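Why Smr domain-containing protein? Reviewers of the renewal asked for a concrete example.
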Amino acid sequence: MYNEIDLHNLDFRLALSIFKRKYNEALKRKDKREILIIHGYGANKLGHIPILATNLRIFLSKNKDKLSYRLSINPGVTYVTPISRLD
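Here is what the prediction returned.
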């Protein structure tokens, strides 16, 4: 079973803050299960670019030393496996 974080329809800064807090809380509990992040696939978008999904995945790719992630068949979801604390 996954941990789950629903960031649907949130501003990127708020979504990132919530994600980091819950991610770090899971690590503190020594819970390294994969986290299912629900970010939606584009309701909050600029033109045709989904802002939250795109920015979240950019953040994840810049932190590959602290986590691993994989995309889903569902474009509104990303899976993250915690490795070490995020600042």
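Residues 2-80 form a domain with the Ribosomal Protein S8; Chain: A, domain 1 fold (CATH 3.30.1370.110). This is the kind of structural detail the renewal will allow us to pursue systematically.
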